[in-house]
Amino acid sequence: MFVSGAATILHADLDAFYASVEQRDDPALRGRPVIVGGGVVLAASYEAKAHGVRTAMSGGQARRLCPGAVVVPPRMDAYAAASKAVFALFRATTPLVEGLSIDEAFLDVDGLRRISGTPAGIAARLRRRVAEEVGLPITIGVARTKFLAKVASGVAKPDGLLVVPPDGELEFLRPLPVRRLWGVGPATAAKLAGYGVATVGQVADMPEAALVALLGPGAGRHLHALARNRDPRPVRTGVRRRSMGAQRALGRRHRTPEELDAMLVGLLDRLAGRLRGANRVCRTVTLRLRFGDYARATRSHTLPQATAETAVLLDAARVFLGAAAPLVAERGLTLIGVSLGSLHDDRAVQLALPFDAGLAADAAVDGVRGRFGSSAITRAVLLGRDPGIAVPTLPDEPPD
């Protein structure tokens, strides 16, 4: 086991992040239901969530559920600035910070007892500093493992602090619904419910072989370990992401094949630029689709040569989108997403021959955007179209 024997891992998660920033910056919104994003819900305040509003829901459905909600346009620059300020406080607390997203991180405070006090005291001070210096509510779970710290923060939301002592871990875990287990979505929960399994304790009581037979080797062993709070992963710093992705929620309106292709171009153009900006290349391109009946499809392709060239990545994704066209026409499409996986440092990959002019063109586009802004140059197919929203992400920086 790599983890400490004490509850020294913090999972810090900003509450309803985008909506909280809006309520912080506009006092008139405080205490009122707030929805960020009009066509599709990007975030909802807890006042709106109480009416059933959820992220990625269509704006029309959200307004029907919560007619009194205030709908505000997203301000990504404000969210990025708030995230940067909060992460500065994380790093002032401990050097061991593992960011998960712009509003969520693990912190390891083991060894800080003499200079900073108990993990619970450190967490309480961190919450107070985030509230006073950044003006945002944050929930923190404290536990011996990363998994349990994340579960604790989820249970403590909103604006709470929950410490799970080592001698009370299983007592805390067992009554929780199976959806609290990392990796259990609606499909897995439904499959377990079909066998009368509804709580973490019931999963823990199942033989590992039975879980493997039901869910497959990877998921079965994963859930068997988590239900018993076996999670040896330490908080890791300086680890670069293994994939990067972007998606776009489409609502319920019918989209033509040309519109969907333009959206795919926009997503890949943005992703490939991020890839090159981080000096990375990728080999795996994955297209994710969510249909009008909420069924999902995922298709992946591994390229023969790692690349960051926009045209190559786009061609791979277009093959999948074209193959899915009959299903899209039949069921409709509510979400399209792309992820780039099997990432490598571009200096560690040998360039393939013959050299293509595509990378030179990409570099020229990146240069123009870097100097004059992302809207200074765009692809012809995107002219006059809504480019979608570029969600801020954590920087993918190489380790020191």
TrEMBL record:
Pfam families: IMS (PF00817), IMS_C (PF11799), IMS_HHH (PF11798). It is found in: Cytoplasm. Keywords: Cytoplasm, DNA damage, DNA repair, DNA replication, DNA-binding, DNA-directed DNA polymerase, Magnesium, Metal-binding, Mutator protein, Nucleotidyltransferase, Transferase. Residues 9-185 form the UmuC domain. It is an enzyme of class 2 (transferase). The active site is at residue 104. Its EC number is 2.7.7.7. Binds 2 magnesium ions per subunit. Mg(2+) binds at residues 13, 103. The record marks 18 as: Substrate discrimination. It catalyses: DNA(n) + a 2'-deoxyribonucleoside 5'-triphosphate = DNA(n+1) + diphosphate. Gene3D superfamilies: 3.30.70.270, 3.40.1170.60, 5' to 3' exonuclease, C-terminal subdomain, DNA polymerase, Y-family, little finger domain. SUPFAM superfamilies: DNA/RNA polymerases (SSF56672), Lesion bypass DNA polymerase (Y-family), little finger domain (SSF100879). Its cofactor is Mg(2+). NCBIfam families: PRK02406.1, PRK03858.1. Belongs to the DNA polymerase type-Y family. This is DNA polymerase IV. The gene is dinB_1.
